[in-house]
Amino acid sequence: MPKINVYVPDDLAAAVRARQLPISAICQMALRGALDREAPDSSVRITEHIETDLPFSPHLASVISLAPAAAARKGSLTVDSEHLLQALLDEEENLILRGLDHLGLTRASIQKTLDLVVPDKAPADDNDVTYGPAARVILEAAVADARLAGNSVVNGANLVWALANASTGYAADVLDHLGFFQVTTHQALGLIEVGVGHTNRYAPAGQAAILTELAKITDRLARLEASLSSSCS
After folding, report:
1. Which residues, 6+ apart, have CB-to-CB distance to 196 below 8 Å?
2. pTM
3. Secondary structure (DSSP) of 2-21
4. What CATH number does residue 14 fall under?
5. Biological process (GO) annotations (predicted)?
6. Does residue 79 lie within any of the structural domains?
7. Is 154 among the domain residues?
8. Cα–Cα distance for residue pair 17/12, rounded to 1 Å
9. CA-based, 20 to 30 A from 69: which of 36, 59, 63, 153?
10. Can you tell me whether residue 154 is helix, strand or coil?
11. How many whole angstroms separate alpha carbon 154 and alpha carbon 173?
């Protein structure tokens, strides 16, 4: 993605770093907001087309705004699951990506599989791309998952779980091919995002929950490795 330099006073820069705020996502939201005020009917404002009383996290809002461009690069005039997954990679700063990296689902491996699986067509103009029924279903599933988890916002983990279970597009196939359901669980996915974002501030009980779930994942991987080794011998 192109880069834009933003200059801020020293005290503001120090405060932003101390709070570990998602700088890129916040700036993108501000710029999108300015554009939306001039073009209120913009098709990227998907939150106007789904029923939710939960806000999207800044990172996730940025992912949603980047998905039409991801679809356009592949020549699609409607956003589907693979374009939301690509937008998650394009946004770069979503906390859940760091957690997936640690589980072996690296950004590079996801990108490579997307490039192999998703067909290439003649690029389209991202201004012509819209959010169709498939994308709305996926985002509604992410909202429902956030409610089920008791979240105050819809976050990257909610989207990833919705993508892994999507019935349209290629995202579910990509994640399944990379062993998504073999290395994580629904509960662990949510805890991973929380753990990555609040490692130094999390309460002992929360830390214990995260470690418990990660221990389950480690044990599962060990059993899979042992099974593969025995079948190859």
Report:
1. 95, 96, 98, 99
2. 0.69
3. --------HHHHHHHHHHT-
4. 1.10.1780.10
5. proteolysis
6. yes
7. yes
8. 9
9. 153
10. strand
11. 23
